[in-house]
Amino acid sequence: MGNLKDQVVLITGASSGIGAATARALAAQGARVVLSARREGRLQELAQQLGERAAYLPSDVASLEDMQALVQLAKARFGRVDALFANAGIMPGSQMSQIRVEDWMDMVEVNIKGVLNAMAAVLPDMIAQQRGHILVTSSAAGLRSVPGNAVYCGTKHFVRAMLDSFRMEAVAEGSGIRTTTLYPGAVKTELLHSIAPSPEKDAVEQFYEQAGLDPEGIANAVVYALSQPPEVDVSDLVIRSIREG
Ligand SMILES: NC(=O)c1ccc[n+]([C@@H]2O[C@H](COP(=O)([O-])OP(=O)(O)OC[C@H]3O[C@@H](n4cnc5c(N)ncnc54)[C@H](OP(=O)(O)O)[C@@H]3O)[C@@H](O)[C@H]2O)c1
C-alpha cells in the first residue's frame, strides 16, 4: 500500500457528512487536509479538532476564484496539492412535474459546475508535477435512473461520464493523474435537509434512517483509493450498507 502520510488533500463539502468524516479519516492516517465549504463555523471547529494537519477556507464551489484560492492556501500552508476530493453536493429532489427550476439550476451549479471549478483549480499544478489524484463523489444515482430525483440523478451521471473520460485522456497524455469515482448508496448525512417537506421526503428520511450507512463507510473508501501504490488506479467504487437493496 502507498503511504498517506503528509499527502496534501483538498476536500470540498468538508463541513458535514461524507466530507467531514473523510477529513477525519485522512488526518488520522497522517495526511494534511485543506477543508472547503460555505459554513465557516463548522470548518473552523473541524480544523481545530484536527490541529496542524488541517487548514480551511470558507468557499463556494460555484466560484472558480474560490477554488483557486483554496489551491493557493494549500500551497502556502503545505507546499503542494497531491489530491482533490470533489465531494460538495446538494439534493433538493422533486418530481420534474413540480418544475422547481431554481432547485434544478442549484444542483447544476454545485454538483456539476462545482466539480469542474475544483478540477480547473487543481489541474495546472497536477499537470506540471506529473502526478495527482482526483476523487469525485457521484452516487448510486449516477449508475441508474431514479424517479423523484431526475436532475440530481443527471448531475451524478455527468460526474461519472466526465471523470471516466478524463481518466482515459490522462492515460493517453501520460499525465500521471489518477481518478476515483465514488458511488455511495444511502448515507446518513445532512443531504436530505434541502428537500422540500412532503410525504415522499418523510419516506426517504425513514429509509435513510433504517438502511443508511454512516459516512465513515465512504471515508474509508477514500482512504483505500488514496493509499494505493502509484501505478494502481482505483477508478470506481460502489459503497452501500448491507441493508440497502
Ligand atoms: N448522503 C447520501 O446518501 C449520498 C449518497 C450518494 C452521494 N452523496 C453525495 O455525497 C456528497 C456529500 O454529501 P453528504 O451526503 O455528505 O451531505 P451533506 O452532509 O449535506 O454535505 C454536503 C456538503 O456540501 C457542501 N456544499 C453544498 N453546497 C456547496 C457550495 N455551493 N459550495 C461549497 N460547498 C457546498 C456543504 O457545505 P456548506 O453547506 O457548508 O457549504 C456540505 O459540506 C454529495 O456530493 C452528495 O451528492 C451522498
Number of alpha- plus pi-helical segments: 7
CATH fold title:
Rossmann fold
What is the CATH class? Alpha Beta
Assembly state: single chain
Q: What characteristic shape results from the CA principal axes?
A: globular
Proportion in β-strands = 15-25%
What value does the average pLDDT take?
97
What is the helix fraction of residues, given as a range?
40-55%
State the distance separating the first and last CA atoms.
Answer: 31 Å
The ligands bound in this entry are: NADP nicotinamide-adenine-dinucleotide phosphate
Key structural traits:
245 residues; Rossmann fold; 7 helices; 7 strands; 16% strand; globular; binds NADP nicotinamide-adenine-dinucleotide phosphate
Q: Can you give a write-up of this model?
A:
The longest helix has 29 residues, at about 100-130. It is built from 7 helices and 7 strands. Strands 3-2-1-4-5-6-7 form a 7-stranded parallel beta sheet, with helices on both faces. Helix 1 (about 15-30) crosses helix 7 and helix 3 (about 65-80) runs parallel beside helix 4 (about 100-130). The mean pLDDT is about 95. It has a single domain (about 10-235), classed as NAD(P)-binding Rossmann-like Domain (Rossmann fold), CATH 3.40.50.720. The chain has helices spanning about 15-30, 40-50, 65-80, 100-130, 150-175, 200-210, 215-225, and strands at about 10, 30-35, 55-60, 85, 130-135, 175-185, 235-240. It is an alpha/beta fold and about 240 residues long. About 45% of the residues lie in helices and about 15% in strands. The radius of gyration is 17 Å and the shape is globular. The structure holds NADP nicotinamide-adenine-dinucleotide phosphate (NAP).
